[in-house]
Amino acid sequence: PKPLIQMPFTSPGKINLPEVANEWENRWKDVLSRSQELQKNLNDIDQKSQQYWGKLEDITNRMNDSALREKQKEKNRKFQEKWNETYKRAKQHVNLTIELNSKAQDFHSIMMLNAMRQEVEVSIDQLNSIADEASSLSKQIEEAAQQGQEIIEKSKL
What are phi and psi of 13, to 5 degrees? Predict the structure, then answer.
């Protein structure tokens, strides 16, 4: 299967974390949104179904024939058991998405921190280059000043 996120590299073996972090964040936000939508749908179905159980019981209890009423109560009971098992399964999976989203938030924070550190590492490399170039330039200036001093001294008669 194709990976969710293509890994762009800045150099061999070095992942471009800022780019990966942005792509991952966009995908994570989509997953989080879908997870929240599932939670809302689960709650909506639960509320709606609770209303049905009350109506089923009410209609069944109004039946005059006790034998028919008992058959319908048994059907209602089996149907509610099936619904309860299915609801429990759906709720477990939705709760798992919520738990995983929480862990994903921490993972996202770690990825962003690493991406920021990679950016700082680039700055450190740039600062080292500036320091090296300034050091080299300082030596050239010192040499030029030394040569200038020698020229001045030689030109004094």
Answer: 80, 0
Residues 31 and 104 sit within 8 Å (Cβ to Cβ)? yes
DSSP 8-class letter at 63: -
Compute the half-sphere exposure of residue 83: CA atoms within 13 Å on the CB side of its CA.
15
Please say if the pLDDT value at position 37 is more than 60: yes
- Angle, alpha carbons 20-104-43 (nearest 5°): 130
Query: Is this model's pTM higher than 0.70 or not?
Result: no
pLDDT for 39-88, tens place per residue?
A: 999 999 999 998 988 999 999 999 999 999 999 999 999 999 999 999 99
Q: What are the E-state strand segments in 1-157?
A: 9-11, 14-15
DSSP labels, 26-40 = HHHHHHHHHHHHHHH
Residue 36 and residue 127 in contact, taking contact as beta carbons nearer than 8 Å: no
Burial of 13 (0-12, 13-18, 19+ CB in 10 A): exposed
How high is the pLDDT of residue 156?
77
